Structures are given as C-alpha cells and as structure tokens.
Amino acid sequence: MAAMFDFKVFPVGVALALVTGCGSAPVAPADSDGTTTTTTATTTTTGTSPTSTVGETTSSTTGSTSESVDSSTSDGSYIITPDLGPLPPCDCAEDELCIYEIGIDSWFKICVTPPAGCAPQQKCSAACMQACVHPTPPAADCDSDPAEALACDYGSSSACSPWGQNCPEGQKCVPIVDQMFPHWELECVPLADPAPAVGEPCLGPASSPTGKDDCAAGALCWPIGGDGDKKCVANCGGTPDDPECGPDQVCATLHEGTITACLSICDPLVQDCPMGQVCSPGLDGFACLPDTSGADGDLSDACSEDDRCDAGFHCLPSQQQSNCVHSSCCTPFCDVNAPDCPFGSACVSPYSLDDTEPPPDWDHVGVCVKP
Fold first, then answer.
1. Which residues does the annotated region (Disordered) include (predicted)?
2. Mean pLDDT of 26-33
C-alpha cells in the first residue's frame, strides 16, 4: 500500500493465504509517465502478510508463528494460517476515526480524518459511515466500543472516501491502483496550487482517470473526448443509494467504487457519447465513460470493467453469458421490448442482475445474458 498521507496502522488479522509458489521480488509501481516514485510517511505497520514456505518461522512485532504445513491439495498448494499475536485496540487521537482497512489478505485498524458531522466517539452513525468506500446505513450490530474499529460494509474501506472527502486540509482523496496485485484503494494527496475547479481544463494521468491530478478537492481530471483533452468533473454527492449530481448527469463508479464521477447522461441503445467514450451503466442511469478497450471490446472479448468494452457492449461475468470463454466478456446492450440477442440469449436489465431496480425511464434497456 503506497503511503502518501499521515495515519496510523494497527494490523488486526490476516486471512488464510493460498500459496502456490514463490514469485519474484515486488517492483515499485510506475507513475503514468513511466517514472517510479518512492514515498515516505509516518505510517506505522507492525505486521505484514506472510510469504513463508513450509517449515519456515515468521515473526513480527505483534507475535510470531512457526509454520510446518504439509500440502493439503492435489495441486501441491497449501494453506498458511499466520499468527500475529494479540489484537491491538484502536489508539487514535480524539479527533480521529478508527476504521478497518481491508487489504489483499489482511485487515488493519487505521486512524483517519472523520467526515463532516462524524463524532468519532459515536462512530455507529450515518455521518461516520461516509468514511467507507461504499457508505451504507450503520449495521444493527455496529460495535460502539472505542477500542474497536468501524467495520464498513462490502469489506471495503480506505484512508479516505470519495463520498466523505475526509482528507486533512490541503489534501484531496484520489483513487490509486497497486499495480503489483492489482488492488484499488483511496489515498489523501496534497492539493495542487492553483487547483482547477469543476469544468476547467486539468492535467492528470494519460490513461484512465486515476491517480494524482491537479483538480480541486472533490473533483478529478476526466477525459472529455478521444483527442486527449481533459477537464475536472465532480465526485458524486450523497450516498451510493441516493447519489447527487448536476442536471443531465449520472453518478458513475469504477474500480471497486474508488472512482465516483458526475458524468454526462447517455443512451446505451443509441451510444450518443463523444468519440473515444462509451455509454455504460452508472448508479442512477447511463453515463459516458472513456473507452479503454484497445484492440478488444467486441462481442465475447475478454473484459474487466465497463470501460473495457466497445460502444454498444457491456462487461459481464462468464456465468451470465452463453458464449464466454473468459472470466468476463463483452455482451451487447439490447431493447427489452424488442430483443435481438446472439446465442439464444435473453435481454435483461443490467440493474436487475445486481438485484436493484432500473433507474426511472431506463427499464427498457437490457443486456444479453444466458436465459
């Protein structure tokens, strides 16, 4: 996890790790311009994920474990159950909020700046839930013990939230990808000076709208066409259940919810986005996203995000498709009232696949799925 902000970390457990072999030493991820950046911070980490082999002893400042595990599966892989010792309590300042941060194979307790209206001593509140990447109403069994961290729903939390915008003064919340895993998270980074406002031209990464840019807090630098021009767009307001954007805009999310953006509304059956963009589902309608499909993106091509398919297609898992040989493939949009799907597929609203109701006026838009 790249550290570009000031918070404390308290490891509280590690999930079971399935080990199938040893890889090469990790390499620091490169920035969008190809350079490699090394950052430092006052983050305190007292334990790490295990990379031990059979018979090896691992240790950390919170405990040690001697592993001697035989292969338990037919392919030679085995399960390591690490022991990090006693679980430390939260040790945050009075004006900090303690939450769980979920990594690839570990949980941490971290201290973050609380969102507006959040009293850390009353962390089981709707205002404090805004610190989560996916804010939800507080769970009925939320633990109000100050020694315990706030547990966010969906197993996702980070150093800041695009909804709560809970970074210290002079910083902003941005999505960052760890290219070694990959894993998406959010970090607080210093604001540019001057920082362009929403609607103004901006400078940001060359590819997808992620990482550091020069936009003001609450905004990120977004491609506006296929010519490379970019402008600052607002992060979504409200909550995932009730997003707030400007007129003729839709709240779009990408990369495990770490990106939220108020983007132009579009019709996926018409694909009326500017050149270099595709019309894909957002939280409350369909929005124009950058087309990053490259040479792929056609019918049954492999994909990983909504913006990895060509215009007129949507990325879905293979189990929902009739002719997909990858983990996920591009499938066509269709009109529920006049379906025309390949491979004998049915036309179903993409929102119903997530057990949600289609946004008003969009219940006629579907995608081709396995009947």
1. 29-77
2. 38
pLDDT over 90, % of the chain: 45
- Say which residues have a Cβ less than 8 Å from residue 294's Cβ, sequence separation at least 6: none
- Residue 259: count of CB within 10 angstroms of its CB: 23
d(CA 86, CA 92): 18
Number of neighbouring beta carbons within 10 Å of residue 116? 9
Q: For position 228, what pLDDT does the model report?
A: 73
What one-character-per-residue DSSP string does 155-210 give?
G-B-SS-TTT----TTEEEEEEEETTTTEEEEEEEEPPSS-PPTTSB----SSSS-
Q: What angle do CA 143, 148, 154 make, to 5 degrees?
A: 70
pLDDT of residue 168: 93
DSSP label at residue 269: T
Phi, psi of 8 (to 5 degrees): -100, 150
Q: Which helix (H) or strand (E) holds 243?
A: strand 242-244
CA 197 distance to own-chain centroid: 24
225: Cβ contacts below 8 Å, ≥ 6 apart: 274, 275, 276, 277
Least confident of 8-12, 64-68, 83-87, 166-170: 64-68
> Residue 235, SS3?
coil
